[in-house]
Amino acid sequence: MEMQRSNMGEIIEIPQAPSGCCYDDEATNFEDAKHRVASKNKLLIAIAICMVFMSGQIVGGIISNSLAIQTDAAHMLSDILSFAISLFSLWASGWKATPRYTYGFFRIEILGALVSVLITWNVTVILCYKAIDRIIHGTEGHDVHGWIMVLIGSLESVPSHIDSAKLARDLCETVNGVDAVHQLHIWSITSGEVILSCHIQVKPDANPFIVLKKVIQHVKQEYKISNVTVQVELPEDVSQGS
Predict the structure, then answer these.
(1) Digit-coded pLDDT (tens) for 165-190
(2) Within this chain, do residues 31 and 132 fall inside the same structural domain, yes or no?
(3) Is 11 helix (H, G, I), strand (E, B) or coil?
(4) Do 171 and 131 share a structural domain?
(5) Which of 60, 63, 81, 227 could disulfide-link to 195, CB 3.0 to 4.6 Å?
(6) At what angle do helices 67-93 and 26-64 cross, to 10 degrees?
(7) Is 132 inside a domain boundary?
(8) Measured between alpha carbons, how far is 137 from 228 in angstroms, rounded to an integer?
(9) Within a domain: 34
(10) Is there a domain that residue 222 lies in?
(11) 16 occurs within a structural domain
């Protein structure tokens, strides 16, 4: 406080302005630092996982002389570089504000994103050049043939979470009127979309329409199969077929 005397002889206290300025808010900085630490940990985990996969792709691409595998490894490398740049940007953006840069260094994250995009485009150009060069000069590799991949992808199998034999026994033991289940087929056409088709043999004293309804309801409720097609076989149909 500065003391001054007025014209009336009274003493007046005049508050002085603070000698310096504070450029950071402690509470806000603490939350920002906490968020940056969590983001850094996630980026470090992502970098470690990508390096493991990239190492395997590099070895496989060299052994098989496969441009496709080498391309995937290069793409993985660009991801690792992007993660590393993001990691540096997070660290640098945590620098304290200064009298010259009063808003801090948060813009470094934007520059890091720009560098990541440039790296991705450079890798793309290089890989396109290598692919065109291989096509023109006819360099032979050992890339996996597309028809083999299509063939493998076309093979249908029962989803891993469903036991077809157990499902057939369950229908015979749980649904009244079911005598036997055969021609059972279960497959997945896409993620979460499972299809079932089967023939059921009903008992002589059972109502085939009621049995059919119960079978479809049971399969949908217990096994979460959305598309169910059931063909009912009556006892006389079975006897004629035999």
Answers:
(1) 999 999 999 999 999 999 999 988 76
(2) yes
(3) strand
(4) no
(5) 227
(6) 160
(7) yes
(8) 53
(9) yes
(10) yes
(11) no
**CA 38 centroid distance within chain:** 19
Question: What is the SS3 assignment for 98?
Answer: coil
Give the residue numbers spanning the domain of 69: 25-94+104-137
Helix %, strand %, coil % for the chain, to 5? Answer: 60, 15, 25
Contact by Cβ (8 Å): 50, 79: yes
Average pLDDT, the chain: 77
Burial of residue 15 (CB within 10 Å: 0-12, 13-18, 19+) is exposed
The percent of residues above 90 in pLDDT, for the chain, comes to 27
Is pTM beyond 0.85? Reply is no
Concatenating the DSSP letter of every residue in 124-138 gives HHHHHHHHHHHHHHT
The total of structural domains in the chain comes to 2
168-175's contacts with Cβ under 8 Å and 24+ in sequence apart are 168/198, 170/218, 170/222, 171/200, 171/215, 171/218, 171/219, 174/218, 175/211, 175/214, 175/215, 175/218
Same domain, 169 and 124: no
- For residues 33 and 112, membership in a common domain is answered with yes
In this structure, are 133 and 209 located in the same domain?
no
- The pLDDT assigned to 212 comes to 95
Query: In this predicted model, what pLDDT tens digit does every residue of 44-102 receive, in sequence order?
Result: 898 899 899 889 888 888 887 777 787 788 878 888 888 888 888 878 777 777 777 76
Asked if 152 and 145 touch (Cβ cutoff 8 Å), the reply is no
| Residue given tokens 């009063």 in the structure block | 102
